[in-house]
Amino acid sequence: MASAESFFRDIKRDPGRYYIIHYSSETLFDPDAEKAPSPRITSIVVRHYQSGQTLSFATHTAAETLGIALDQIEARFDEVEKEMLTQFYKFVRDRRERLWVHWNMRAITFGFEHLEHRYRVLTHDEPPSIPVEVRLNLNDILKARYGQDYAPDPRMSSLMNLNGGLVQGFMAGKDESEAFKAKDYIRMHASTIAKVTFFAHVISLALKGKLKTAGNGIVNLIDRLLESRKARVTVTACTALGGAVALVQGWKWIF
Length: 255
What we know:
Layout: H1 4-13, E1 18-25, E2 41-48, E3 54-58, H2 59-66, H3 77-93, E4 99-102, H4 112-123, E5 135-137, H5 138-146, H6 155-162, H7 173-181, H8 185-207, H9 218-227, H10 229-254
Parallel strand pairs: 1-4, 4-5
Antiparallel strand pairs: 1-2, 2-3
Helix pairs in contact: 2-3, 3-4, 9-10
InterPro entries: RNaseH-like_sf
Protein backbone atom coordinates (compact mmCIF):
# COMPACT_ATOMS: atom_id res chain seq x y z
CA MET A 1 0.00 0.00 0.00
CA ALA A 2 1.15 3.53 -0.75
CA SER A 3 2.37 5.51 2.24
CA ALA A 4 0.16 8.25 3.63
CA GLU A 5 2.76 10.77 2.49
CA SER A 6 2.76 9.56 -1.11
CA PHE A 7 -1.03 9.14 -1.20
CA PHE A 8 -1.79 12.76 -0.33
CA ARG A 9 1.01 14.04 -2.54
CA ASP A 10 -0.10 12.00 -5.54
CA ILE A 11 -3.85 12.59 -5.26
CA LYS A 12 -3.16 16.33 -5.12
CA ARG A 13 -0.93 16.16 -8.21
CA ASP A 14 -3.08 13.80 -10.29
CA PRO A 15 -6.62 13.57 -8.90
CA GLY A 16 -8.02 12.22 -12.14
CA ARG A 17 -6.46 8.80 -11.50
CA TYR A 18 -8.47 8.17 -8.32
CA TYR A 19 -11.85 6.54 -7.78
CA ILE A 20 -13.60 6.13 -4.43
CA ILE A 21 -15.72 3.02 -3.93
CA HIS A 22 -18.04 1.60 -1.30
CA TYR A 23 -20.92 -0.88 -1.33
CA SER A 24 -23.73 -2.28 0.78
CA SER A 25 -24.76 -5.87 1.19
CA GLU A 26 -26.98 -8.27 3.05
CA THR A 27 -26.04 -8.23 6.71
CA LEU A 28 -23.27 -10.53 7.89
CA PHE A 29 -24.27 -10.64 11.54
CA ASP A 30 -27.99 -11.36 11.70
CA PRO A 31 -28.53 -15.00 12.75
CA ASP A 32 -32.22 -14.78 11.88
CA ALA A 33 -31.65 -13.78 8.26
CA GLU A 34 -32.20 -16.35 5.55
CA LYS A 35 -28.93 -15.76 3.75
CA ALA A 36 -27.42 -16.88 0.51
CA PRO A 37 -24.14 -18.81 0.96
CA SER A 38 -22.46 -15.41 0.66
CA PRO A 39 -24.14 -12.08 1.44
CA ARG A 40 -25.96 -10.51 -1.48
CA ILE A 41 -24.83 -7.16 -2.84
CA THR A 42 -27.47 -4.42 -2.71
CA SER A 43 -25.61 -1.41 -4.14
CA ILE A 44 -22.18 -0.24 -5.30
CA VAL A 45 -21.21 3.43 -5.57
CA VAL A 46 -18.14 4.77 -7.38
CA ARG A 47 -17.07 8.41 -7.30
CA HIS A 48 -14.41 9.93 -9.56
CA TYR A 49 -12.41 12.04 -7.13
CA GLN A 50 -11.42 14.87 -9.47
CA SER A 51 -14.78 15.50 -11.11
CA GLY A 52 -17.04 14.39 -8.27
CA GLN A 53 -19.05 12.39 -10.82
CA THR A 54 -20.79 9.56 -8.97
CA LEU A 55 -22.01 6.34 -10.53
CA SER A 56 -24.44 3.98 -8.85
CA PHE A 57 -25.05 0.31 -9.43
CA ALA A 58 -28.09 -0.37 -7.30
CA THR A 59 -30.74 -3.00 -6.71
CA HIS A 60 -33.71 -0.80 -7.57
CA THR A 61 -32.16 0.58 -10.78
CA ALA A 62 -31.08 -2.87 -11.96
CA ALA A 63 -34.60 -4.16 -11.29
CA GLU A 64 -36.08 -1.29 -13.31
CA THR A 65 -33.71 -2.10 -16.20
CA LEU A 66 -34.95 -5.69 -16.16
CA GLY A 67 -38.60 -4.65 -15.88
CA ILE A 68 -38.93 -6.15 -12.40
CA ALA A 69 -41.28 -4.40 -9.99
CA LEU A 70 -39.93 -3.36 -6.60
CA ASP A 71 -42.22 -5.79 -4.80
CA GLN A 72 -40.80 -8.64 -6.91
CA ILE A 73 -37.11 -7.96 -6.21
CA GLU A 74 -36.80 -10.39 -3.33
CA ALA A 75 -38.19 -13.30 -5.37
CA ARG A 76 -35.88 -12.49 -8.30
CA PHE A 77 -32.87 -11.16 -6.40
CA ASP A 78 -30.32 -13.33 -8.24
CA GLU A 79 -31.36 -11.82 -11.58
CA VAL A 80 -31.22 -8.31 -10.20
CA GLU A 81 -27.89 -8.76 -8.47
CA LYS A 82 -26.39 -10.37 -11.59
CA GLU A 83 -27.44 -7.37 -13.70
CA MET A 84 -26.04 -4.93 -11.15
CA LEU A 85 -22.66 -6.68 -10.93
CA THR A 86 -22.46 -7.10 -14.70
CA GLN A 87 -22.89 -3.37 -15.20
CA PHE A 88 -20.37 -2.61 -12.45
CA TYR A 89 -17.68 -4.80 -13.96
CA LYS A 90 -18.31 -3.34 -17.42
CA PHE A 91 -17.39 -0.02 -15.87
CA VAL A 92 -14.36 -1.48 -14.07
CA ARG A 93 -12.95 -3.29 -17.12
CA ASP A 94 -11.26 -0.24 -18.65
CA ARG A 95 -10.32 1.29 -15.29
CA ARG A 96 -8.63 -1.59 -13.51
CA GLU A 97 -5.27 0.19 -13.34
CA ARG A 98 -6.71 3.34 -11.80
CA LEU A 99 -6.34 3.88 -8.06
CA TRP A 100 -9.31 2.72 -5.98
CA VAL A 101 -9.82 4.29 -2.56
CA HIS A 102 -11.99 2.25 -0.21
CA TRP A 103 -12.85 1.76 3.45
CA ASN A 104 -11.78 -1.64 4.82
CA MET A 105 -12.83 -3.54 1.67
CA ARG A 106 -10.20 -6.23 2.12
CA ALA A 107 -11.85 -9.56 2.90
CA ILE A 108 -14.11 -12.17 1.35
CA THR A 109 -16.79 -11.18 3.86
CA PHE A 110 -16.62 -7.50 2.88
CA GLY A 111 -14.35 -6.38 0.11
CA PHE A 112 -13.30 -6.62 -3.52
CA GLU A 113 -13.06 -10.40 -3.16
CA HIS A 114 -16.69 -10.50 -2.02
CA LEU A 115 -17.82 -8.58 -5.11
CA GLU A 116 -15.77 -10.90 -7.33
CA HIS A 117 -17.17 -14.00 -5.63
CA ARG A 118 -20.77 -12.91 -6.08
CA TYR A 119 -20.07 -12.19 -9.76
CA ARG A 120 -18.61 -15.68 -10.24
CA VAL A 121 -21.53 -17.33 -8.43
CA LEU A 122 -24.14 -15.53 -10.50
CA THR A 123 -22.48 -15.42 -13.94
CA HIS A 124 -20.20 -18.49 -13.84
CA ASP A 125 -17.53 -16.26 -15.33
CA GLU A 126 -14.40 -14.46 -14.15
CA PRO A 127 -14.69 -10.73 -13.36
CA PRO A 128 -12.12 -8.16 -14.53
CA SER A 129 -10.57 -7.93 -11.06
CA ILE A 130 -9.15 -4.72 -9.62
CA PRO A 131 -5.49 -5.54 -8.76
CA VAL A 132 -4.51 -5.56 -5.11
CA GLU A 133 -1.74 -3.06 -5.83
CA VAL A 134 -4.17 -0.28 -6.76
CA ARG A 135 -6.51 -0.70 -3.78
CA LEU A 136 -5.95 2.02 -1.17
CA ASN A 137 -7.58 1.69 2.25
CA LEU A 138 -8.46 5.18 3.45
CA ASN A 139 -8.82 4.01 7.04
CA ASP A 140 -5.23 2.71 7.03
CA ILE A 141 -3.97 5.89 5.35
CA LEU A 142 -5.57 8.05 8.04
CA LYS A 143 -4.09 5.86 10.79
CA ALA A 144 -0.65 6.19 9.22
CA ARG A 145 -0.92 9.98 8.97
CA TYR A 146 -2.82 10.94 12.12
CA GLY A 147 -2.09 8.00 14.42
CA GLN A 148 -3.99 4.90 15.48
CA ASP A 149 -6.16 7.08 17.71
CA TYR A 150 -7.33 9.45 14.95
CA ALA A 151 -10.95 8.50 15.71
CA PRO A 152 -12.55 6.15 18.25
CA ASP A 153 -14.48 3.08 17.12
CA PRO A 154 -16.65 3.02 15.12
CA ARG A 155 -14.18 5.19 13.22
CA MET A 156 -16.32 6.22 10.28
CA SER A 157 -19.20 7.72 12.25
CA SER A 158 -16.80 9.13 14.87
CA LEU A 159 -14.85 10.93 12.15
CA MET A 160 -18.11 12.32 10.79
CA ASN A 161 -19.02 13.67 14.22
CA LEU A 162 -15.59 15.26 14.56
CA ASN A 163 -16.10 17.04 11.25
CA GLY A 164 -19.60 18.44 11.40
CA GLY A 165 -21.87 15.52 12.28
CA LEU A 166 -23.32 12.44 10.62
CA VAL A 167 -23.80 12.84 6.88
CA GLN A 168 -27.42 12.94 5.72
CA GLY A 169 -28.50 9.48 4.63
CA PHE A 170 -25.77 7.66 6.57
CA MET A 171 -26.74 4.43 8.28
CA ALA A 172 -24.60 2.31 10.60
CA GLY A 173 -24.36 -1.45 10.11
CA LYS A 174 -27.25 -2.27 12.44
CA ASP A 175 -29.53 0.20 10.65
CA GLU A 176 -28.55 -1.20 7.26
CA SER A 177 -29.39 -4.67 8.56
CA GLU A 178 -32.87 -3.49 9.47
CA ALA A 179 -33.23 -1.78 6.09
CA PHE A 180 -32.33 -5.01 4.30
CA LYS A 181 -34.90 -6.99 6.29
CA ALA A 182 -37.45 -4.30 5.42
CA LYS A 183 -36.45 -4.57 1.73
CA ASP A 184 -35.59 -0.88 1.81
CA TYR A 185 -32.86 -1.08 -0.80
CA ILE A 186 -33.17 2.57 -1.74
CA ARG A 187 -32.21 3.69 1.78
CA MET A 188 -29.26 1.31 1.74
CA HIS A 189 -28.15 2.83 -1.55
CA ALA A 190 -28.52 6.36 -0.13
CA SER A 191 -26.33 5.36 2.80
CA THR A 192 -23.64 4.08 0.43
CA ILE A 193 -23.70 7.36 -1.49
CA ALA A 194 -23.39 9.27 1.79
CA LYS A 195 -20.30 7.30 2.78
CA VAL A 196 -18.54 7.74 -0.56
CA THR A 197 -19.31 11.47 -0.48
CA PHE A 198 -17.85 11.66 3.02
CA PHE A 199 -14.65 9.84 2.02
CA ALA A 200 -14.08 12.42 -0.73
CA HIS A 201 -14.69 15.19 1.80
CA VAL A 202 -12.19 13.65 4.23
CA ILE A 203 -9.49 13.60 1.55
CA SER A 204 -10.21 17.22 0.63
CA LEU A 205 -10.07 18.35 4.25
CA ALA A 206 -6.83 16.46 4.85
CA LEU A 207 -5.21 18.09 1.81
CA LYS A 208 -6.16 21.51 3.21
CA GLY A 209 -4.92 20.64 6.70
CA LYS A 210 -8.45 21.03 8.06
CA LEU A 211 -9.42 17.47 8.93
CA LYS A 212 -10.35 17.26 12.61
CA THR A 213 -9.26 14.10 14.39
CA ALA A 214 -9.06 12.84 17.95
CA GLY A 215 -5.37 12.00 17.68
CA ASN A 216 -2.46 13.75 19.34
CA GLY A 217 0.24 13.18 16.71
CA ILE A 218 2.52 15.83 15.22
CA VAL A 219 0.37 16.21 12.08
CA ASN A 220 -2.69 16.87 14.24
CA LEU A 221 -0.75 19.49 16.21
CA ILE A 222 0.46 21.28 13.09
CA ASP A 223 -3.02 21.26 11.51
CA ARG A 224 -4.51 22.74 14.69
CA LEU A 225 -1.83 25.40 14.93
CA LEU A 226 -2.29 26.46 11.33
CA GLU A 227 -6.02 26.87 11.88
CA SER A 228 -5.40 29.84 14.16
CA ARG A 229 -5.05 33.32 12.68
CA LYS A 230 -2.03 34.03 14.85
CA ALA A 231 -0.22 30.98 13.52
CA ARG A 232 -0.93 31.95 9.93
CA VAL A 233 0.43 35.44 10.57
CA THR A 234 3.53 33.92 12.16
CA VAL A 235 4.10 31.64 9.19
CA THR A 236 3.72 34.56 6.79
CA ALA A 237 6.17 36.66 8.79
CA CYS A 238 8.71 33.85 8.94
CA THR A 239 8.49 33.43 5.19
CA ALA A 240 9.07 37.14 4.64
CA LEU A 241 12.07 37.08 6.95
CA GLY A 242 13.77 34.23 5.13
CA GLY A 243 12.26 31.30 6.99
CA ALA A 244 10.77 29.85 3.83
CA VAL A 245 13.37 27.11 3.57
CA ALA A 246 12.54 25.74 7.00
CA LEU A 247 8.82 25.99 6.28
CA VAL A 248 9.15 24.11 2.99
CA GLN A 249 11.21 21.39 4.63
CA GLY A 250 8.56 21.05 7.32
CA TRP A 251 5.77 20.61 4.79
CA LYS A 252 7.85 18.10 2.84
CA TRP A 253 8.14 16.09 6.04
CA ILE A 254 4.36 16.19 6.52
CA PHE A 255 3.38 15.48 2.92
